[in-house]
UniProtKB/TrEMBL annotation:
It comes from the Bacteria. This is Phosphate ABC transporter, ATP-binding protein. GO terms for cellular component: plasma membrane. Keywords: ATP-binding, Nucleotide-binding. The lineage of its organism: Bacteria, Pseudomonadati, Nitrospirota, Nitrospiria, Nitrospirales.
Length: 217
């Protein structure tokens, strides 16, 4: 079931600093939305609000399925996920890192193994599955984070600066992963980046955050 996401008149501030001011946008198509803007303009804050990790000071974040507003409960939160620029890695194998989200959902055994292997194959880490996750390069670690997100099959995937501090080779791999996700209709993907060339390569919808608000780029 496809999810629509609406942000309506969102405001958010920290320690007296207003980051988002009357911010509105509707995400209602499967594809890739790329949110650009200067560092510190509120892109990451907006993603955290949309991922229901934080709450706005005012305004509303709503998810709808077939026109019906969904409660912000565990069931909804399990349909959305956010991958941060610095992925937290457990001191265990790559395979077990990726299987974590399945385990807390009660999916184990052969069914979980098939899903994990598929996710690792998708991000090009199948040959690393028995390696300790802490030994991966920064680019491989980011791909691990994406695999951990994909394995739970989210309807809405947020990627906050997915190629920040990543070498050129892994940047190209990650961009290819994102484009293949779109081609296969895996999820609606919302990305932040400060790289205008990357935004142009990836975006179905190019967005600009400025002055605490979002406009089409």
């Amino acid at each position: 079931m496809i999810l629509d996401l609406s942000a309506t008149n969102i405001s958010k501030g920290y320690n007296g600093n207003q980051v988002l001011k009357g911010c509105d946008f509707l995400f209602d198509n499967i594809g890739i939305y790329v949110l650009t803007g200067a560092n510190g303009c509120g892109k990451s804050t907006f993603l955290r609000l949309c991922a229901l990790i934080e709450s706005p000071d005012s305004g509303e974040i709503n998810y709808r399925a077939e026109g019906t507003v969904l409660p912000k409960d565990l069931a909804l939160k399990r349909r959305i996920t956010l991958v941060l620029p610095k992925v937290g890695v457990f001191n265990t194998t790559v395979f077990r890192n990726v299987s974590y989200g399945l385990g807390i959902r009660g999916i184990k055994g052969r069914k979980a193994a098939v899903k994990v292997n598929d996710a690792l194959e998708f991000v090009g880490l199948a040959d690393k599955k028995d390696q300790n996750g802490l030994t991966l390069s920064s680019g491989e670690t980011q791909r691990l984070g994406i695999a951990r997100a994909l394995v739970i099959e989210p309807d809405m995937l947020f990627l906050d600066e997915p190629t920040a501090s990543v070498d050129q080779k892994n940047t190209a791999i990650i961009e290819d992963i994102i484009l293949r996700m779109k081609r296969e209709g895996r999820a609606t993907v919302i990305i932040t980046t400060h790289d205008k060339e990357q935004a142009a390569r990836l975006a179905d919808s190019l967005l600009l955050m400025h002055d605490g608000k979002i406009s089409r780029g």
